[in-house]
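Please, structure for the following, as tokens.
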Amino acid sequence: MHSMLLATQLAMLAGGPSPAELKPVIERGLAYIEREGLKWKDERDCASCHHVPMMLWTLGAAKALGYTVNDQVVADAAAWTFREDNASRVLYPPETPPEKRAYTIAATFSVLAFPTPPTTDAAQLANMGRFTSFLAEKQSADGSWPASGRLPVNAGVESATILNRLALAAPWVANGQASVDKANAWLAAQPPSDDFQVRNLRLLLAAREHANDAALVPLIDRVCERQNADGGWSQLPDMPSDAFATGQAILALASARCGYNYPATARGLAFLQTTQREDGAWAMASRKVEGAAEVKNLDPITYAGTAWAMLGLMEAVAKP
């Protein structure tokens, strides 16, 4: 009782919602993530980069942080994703020529979803190894990974490199250290970026690697300087705040010990609290791409944005 009261008082001082006030927001979001992730899997018979892998990552993070999730849903979806017959269509059929096996960020998110293995089954673990081998195979000689498609669900070169570097650092990944070392060398040579994902993911990486305050503070400042007046973050300076950019920024800040009572995080949490839809999702708009047709189906970006919002919310609530 005393800890809950203290958490509420700290949140009030920071100007944001308390963990208790965010509980229903998180519960609605988790229900949406499970419901719509399973719907996509069953109706499309495809994992896609923006649905099933992000569902696994979000529900796995929720369980690790003490939220109630349907363990059977996670186990079944994980087994389906990594099946040897490639039911999820994340990887390529064996007969696909190597030059046609383009990098896909769906494989990255599938590995990122599991800091620890979801099973002790030897066959499934071997199939998960196919995913990590694919990621290592797609690393460029210079240590980076290629861009993978339309932003922001997919990633540019630096963002993809950070995400893969995080994925392959999991203790269960066999022979991942060589790829991690090459990625570290490439990342160390890159100049500061104005890209919102790079800023967020640079901080997330440093936090996950337990960087000291001298290294974290400049990265925290770079994330915070992009915060908008409404408390959210946006993908581009001329775009409005949205759940994707805001959730990712909050995840990075909270991972760097800037949780719900940190002023910038508190304002971001308030933005997410007030903009969530009744169905548990956050409205998203598709980024305009010169020369490309306007995207009509907003389900992919809405789901991905909601997943990032949930990852940020849950991490921030867990850390004062």
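DSSP finds 13 helices and no strands in the chain. The first helix runs from residue 2 to 14.
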